[in-house]
Amino acid sequence: MGQFTLFDLALVLLAANAVQPAITGPDSSLAGGLVILAALFLLNAAVARLNLRLPRLRHLLEGEATVIARDGAWLDGVVAREGLDPEDCRMALREHGLEDVSEVALAVLETDGTISVVPAASDVRRGRRRVRTRRI
What we know:
Layout: H1 6-24, H2 30-53, H3 55-62, E1 66-70, E2 73-74, H4 76-81, H5 86-95, E3 104-109, E4 115-119
Antiparallel strand pairs: 1-2, 1-3, 3-4
């Protein structure tokens, strides 16, 4: 459930509401419920494809990641605006093996609700990798 998009969750709820009358209501035909389900799933697939092809639509539907800590300090205004509980933020640090925000280079609230943390003392090294190609 934690990795559902907003549309996946809406699809599950709509599918349940669409099938319910076919099962318990006056319309006891299974075909009616299946037609509604097929339409919902096709609509979900169409939105998913458009989401991949149109970056503006993706930004509109999913939003964008938000930086909540940088260079060892929480961005208090952003944390408050996003409605995050400070204890949840500290728990995310502990999940990444950090004890305090002073050990953080960057913490980001992702669009799926998870918090990604880049430690200040990470072993990540940037470098260039040269790739050779053959011309034919």
